[in-house]
Amino acid sequence: MSRLLTAGALLLVTWGLLCSGCAKKAQPQTPEDYLRLGDQELGRKREAQARKYYEQFLEQYPDSDLKAQAQFKIAEALYRERNYLEARFEYQKFLELYPLHPLASRAQFQLGMCSLQTVQTFDRAQQHTKEALQAFRLFRSRYPQDPLLAQAEEHSQFLRRRLAAHEFAVARFYYRKKAYHAAIGRFLNLIQVYPDVPDIDAALYMLADSYREEENYVKAQGVLQLLVERFPSSTYLARARAQLRALPKTGITLQ
Description:
Blueprint: H1 2-26, H2 31-43, H3 47-60, H4 67-80, H5 84-97, H6 104-116, H7 127-142, H8 149-176, H9 180-193, H10 200-213, H11 217-230, H12 237-246
Helix pairs in contact: 2-3, 3-4, 4-5, 5-6, 6-7, 7-8, 8-9, 9-10, 10-11, 11-12
């Protein structure tokens, strides 16, 4: 009987210790406690619970020197939850409140990442693509020595290709619909803004053909000549030369 009592007492003591530990964890006492517990929850992929600790910290310690960290980690938790719209808002809020903080460069980079994660295929509206590209450009100009610069440049190149593909798709749509005036504007924008992306030779050929259909033979000749000179290996080369020969006389000597 005494052994049973001893075992029972031991269980009660153990349970009391466990409950005491739980109570301590549930009731953080200092700003550091809130951040530590939030970080623990974030490490366990319990982002919503982590945010609660960070938000409670900001409510209870609005004058703490650690409040910038809490604000940044709220954004990080939202990003990990794939709640990119709210995360973008919180990163922007962090930059407005703490523009000179050591984490500011990371927040600016993450602004770009939030928009990058919501980029649609090239044939859809490209608002998020433009936002992401602008964020990475700002990151590059403000933090040219940051270790994340190479990643930002890589993302920027991807986004430029996406915007160029979208612009080309719209221009080609107008071209195939024989809306040549609209096609010309789109092709010109593509060539001027994204001169280094693929399919520029195709864009030049369709631009020249649009000018020809509009009976603007001088501009058609100029664009075809540019295509021949710049892209000697293009699959459009033979067609470009044939178009040049077939154009009405413009009075301009071909090189």
